[in-house]
């Protein structure tokens, strides 16, 4: 009898050691997943400026660019002229519904319908709307800075943002890119093209704060639960997880909840098992 008791103790001890050995690989996999997520987050920090407004964007580090002060409310659009007489009118943060010059008319009504980037074609004496405010996109290019891009059915136009220390903003045409095609590159020199910390951009949102609080609460819950189960209750392996039965049944509870919603919040009727009293 004593031999059986000692044998059971050895079997139990061996099972505990096996659980401990099984717990180590699982913890290692968990740490690898955390490391991979951190590496993925670092790789995303590649200088991309996420659009947060019609003419504003935010970098991953909380800095951002807001072009709304480029043109005051009382000023007209920025203007530049090409060597062949074509003119470009640019208003990065405001839709304009009038022809910039009194000496020219927009007979086709292309720019009078509203534009943020308009071109006067000297050869045809007509206007061409190149960009609209709601179609503005920010594109970051490695070793080439940040661009505003505008695309329509026929044209693709990009505006390179260059940080300037002057108080005013200036628009120029990139002579190396100007050709007979429908693609144009403009350059905007402006102090508002310099990245800076903007309070509305850098301040975390309510959802971010709630997610951080939830993560800290779950982490504290598991750390305290594992410590109590291991130190005071002598648990080992998977038994160290607090409320283990609940976490094991959680997938089934989620599945039942999904079925309940799928059935229109009605209890699903199932055929009784042949081993139950109802079947009899």
The number of E-state strands comes to 13
Structural class: alpha+beta
Outline: elongated
**So how many helices?**
4
Could you tell me the radius of gyration in angstroms? 32 Å
Walk across the major sheet and give the strand order.
Answer: 8-9-10-12-11
Secondary-structure element series: HEEEEEEEEEEEEEHHH
N→C terminal distance: 45 Å
Q: Overall pLDDT, averaged?
A: 77
Strand content: 15-25%
> How many strands, what sense, and barrel or not for the largest sheet?
5 strands, mixed
Helix content: 25-40%
General description of the model:
The chain has 280 residues and is α+β, with helices and mostly antiparallel strands. It contains four helices and 13 strands. The strands form three sheets. It has a five-stranded mixed β-sheet with strand order 8-9-10-12-11, with no helix packed on it. A hairpin with a 4-residue loop joins strand 2 (56-58) and strand 3 (63-66). The longest helix has 43 residues, at 2-44. It is elongated.
Précis, in short:
The protein is an alpha+beta fold and 280 residues long. The chain has helices spanning 2-44, 199-202, 206-231, 244-262, and strands at residues 50-53, 56-58, 63-66, 78-81, 87-90, 117-121, 126-131, 137-141, 145-151, 156-163, 170-173, 183-190, 196-197. The radius of gyration is 32 Å and the shape is elongated.
Would you spell out the secondary-structure blueprint of this structure?
Blueprint: H1 2-44, E1 50-53, E2 56-58, E3 63-66, E4 78-81, E5 87-90, E6 117-121, E7 126-131, E8 137-141, E9 145-151, E10 156-163, E11 170-173, E12 183-190, E13 196-197, H2 199-202, H3 206-231, H4 244-262
Parallel strand pairs: 10-12
Antiparallel strand pairs: 1-2, 2-3, 3-13, 4-5, 5-6, 6-7, 8-9, 9-10, 11-12
